[in-house]
Specification:
By secondary structure, the protein is of the alpha+beta class. The chain is built from 10 helices and 13 strands. It binds adenosine-5'-diphosphate and magnesium ion.
Length: 323
């Protein structure tokens, strides 16, 4: 069995990304980092626990990707540019194959976004993964949750519900053999929408990443901003698989209440609609209008026939969270 030090030395101490703002990376008691002059530091941390956030026996390479991706998604939602990450791994055994595959998934995504792993901690115990990310944003320009105003337009990136449908497939509640692999990819290897977040700085009034389902996450924007919203369900961007599932079951919970898509939900002043539509045409992830910010609190859901969905969508329980 390799020791903790062997594993760190082998997989985490030779960075593929070397940033000039890292004075000292992995290897000492602390990392030494230089925030560029005139930028604010944006910091976020997330923990994934085996049995809660990922299944026992989850594929380690995908897990390495996801652990970083969900954190980068938080930076994206603030409009921040990612720079550094730290990684705390708790492992039941010093399983070198597992660490190698995990590191490969983690470091490949880090490389794509120019993120340097600058430190961490490795301990023994029930398997869990904690990642902290650090990024930069122009002072006063971060995309916060509290900036939405009545009359703002609501947009989302990408497609909603793919990860949720993959979860249903995992539980044996959805069988669509030809689409399950693509859905699984969306659940296991989410794409943080960093370019979208950066492009929306100075344009969006508020933003959040969709980790708990669109209705809940837009609800967080509304609560923080002291406003409400109406979502038009026929406008939600959905893959063919999700569209078909909703048509066949009438279960809107997949695109509305399932989490783990890690798309962005943003609000934009109506006066900037032209700008946002021009941006949407350029961004590979797309930006789709889905609703309006209004004065009355709460999130209202309008069905395609114009009637209101006045309670949590059927099937909501599939996605109910413990915490
Ligand atoms: P200390 O006991 O001083 O906290 P550690 O033995 O925990 O030091 O870590 C030694 C070095 O290795 C530190 O620079 C730490 O940041 C880094 N490190 C430990 N585990 C990881 C990890 N999983 N990923 C990246 N760096 C790590
Ligand atoms: Mg330590």
């Amino acid at each position: 069995m390799p020791s903790e030090f062997d594993l760190i030395a082998r997989y985490f101490s030779r960075p593929r990304v070397r940033r000039s703002d890292v004075v000292l990376g992995v290897g000492d008691d602390c990392a030494l980092l230089e925030v560029p002059p005139g930028r604010q530091l944006a910091v976020s941390i997330d923990t994934l626990v085996e049995g809660t956030h990922f299944a026992c026996g989850a594929e380690p390479r995908a897990l390495g990707h996801k652990a970083l991706a969900v954190n980068l998604s938080d930076l994206a939602a603030m409009g921040a540019e990612p720079a550094w990450a730290t990684l705390a791994l708790t492992l039941p055994t010093a399983d070198e194959d597992w660490v190698e595959a995990f590191a490969a998934g983690f470091l490949a995504l880090a490389e794509v976004h120019g993120v340097q792993l600058v430190g961490g901690d490795t301990t023994r115990g029930p398997r869990s993964v904690t990642v902290q990310v650090h990024g930069f944003v122009e002072p006063g320009r971060a995309l916060r949750r509290d900036g939405a105003r009545p009359g703002d337009l609501v947009y989302v990136t990408g497609t909603l519900g793919d990860a949720g449908l993959a979860l249903l497939a995992q539980q044996g509640l959805f069988v669509g053999l030809d689409t399950v692999a693509a859905l699984r990819e969306r659940l296991d290897r989410p794409t943080p929408r960093l370019a979208v977040g950066r492009a929306l700085v100075g344009v969006a009034s508020a933003a959040i990443d969709v980790s708990d389902g669109l209705a809940a996450d837009l609800g967080h924007i509304c609560a923080a901003s002291g406003v409400g919203a109406t979502l038009y369900l026929d406008r939600l961007p959905c893959s063919t698989a999700v569209r078909t599932y909703v048509a066949e079951t009438g279960d809107w919970s997949v695109p509305v209440a399932a989490g783990d898509d890690y798309e962005l939900c943003v609000t934009v002043p109506a006066a900037r609609q032209g700008e946002i539509e021009a941006l949407a045409a350029e961004l590979p992830a797309g930006l789709h209008w889905v609703g309006m910010i209004e004065r009355p609190p709460g999130v209202r859901l309008v069905l395609p026939d114009g009637s209101m969905l006045d309670r949590a969508p059927a099937g909501y329980d599939h996605f109910a969270r413990d915490g």
